[in-house]
Design brief:
CATH superfamily: Phosphoglycerate mutase-like
Largest sheet: 6 strands, mixed
Number of strands: 6
Distance between the termini: 8 Å
CATH topology: Rossmann fold
Protein name: Histidine phosphatase super family protein
GO molecular function, one term: phosphatase activity
Structural class: alpha/beta
Strand content: 15-25%
Shape: globular
Radius of gyration: 17 Å
Pfam families: His_Phos_1
CATH architecture: 3-Layer(aba) Sandwich
Organism: Pseudomonas fluorescens
Number of helices: 8
Helix content: 40-55%
Oligomer: single chain
Length: 224
């Protein structure tokens, strides 16, 4: 059995309402750095592999955990956040500034639409999530931490739930509605299990409930 924990990064400058230059260079706040350290301390069993998105806020969240387990391999995979608005048009803006444009994008609900240079379509997001799941399934390690981003993590869980139907217009709008209705908090995560050739979402772990992950992770490790 393979156990994978998909962890959203700690609080970033954008999450705190600050203006940001580009999606890949958004830093953590001081509070986010504190959250990342607390998260690392909550992980009591050594993973086999630590993976991060190439985005600055994800790497900064992963670093305290890599420091806690220096002998564990650390890799950067293309598990970055869904950038659906072209960064060239929104440099120096806040989430509040971008909100009407984001709402317009999701209302349109065209899975193949790309907003402009540096943006990707919803189809491409799901393709990246699918590629990650396939690569994780084939990997020879069993207990893996992945530091990523809210919408990318939910895209992976979305694919597991809906399979080949995940790209439909109705489900794209449902994806957005779920994201707005139940915000995925910083340092929260989904725990996935790969067994008998298929993925399942075992549970969602809130940022305030880290001990539950440590218990299940250790149980998985003992069962190998």
């Amino acid at each position: 059995m393979k156990l994978v924990r998909l962890i959203r990064h700690a609080e970033s400058a954008a999450n705190a309402g600050l203006a940001t230059a580009s999606p890949d260079s958004i830093p953590l706040t001081e509070n986010g750095l504190h959250q990342a350290r607390e998260l690392a301390e909550s992980i009591t069993c050594m993973p086999d592999l630590i993976i991060s998105s190439p985005f600055e806020r994800a790497i900064a969240t992963a670093l305290p955990t890599t420091g806690r387990f220096p002998d564990v391999s650390f890799e950067v995979w293309p598990v970055e956040e869904f950038t659906y608005l072209s960064p060239n048009r929104f440099a120096g803006t806040t989430q509040t500034d971008r909100k009407p444009h984001a709402e317009s994008y999701w209302k349109n609900g065209a899975a193949e639409f790309t907003d402009g240079p540096g943006a990707e379509s919803f189809d491409h997001l799901l393709e990246r999530a699918d590629a990650m799941l396939a690569k994780l399934a084939d990997h020879d390690t069993q207990n893996i931490l992945v530091f990523s981003h809210g919408q990318f993590i939910r895209a992976a869980a979305w694919l597991i739930k809906h399979g080949s139907h995940a790209r439909s217009y109705e489900l794209m709008r449902e994806f957005r509605a779920h994201d707005v209705r139940e915000p995925f908090r910083n340092c929260s995560s989904y725990q996935l299990v790969f067994s008998d050739g298929r993925w399942t979402v075992e549970c969602q772990i809130d940022s305030s409930d880290q001990e539950r992950f440590s218990d299940t992770f250790c149980t998985s490790e003992r069962s190998r």
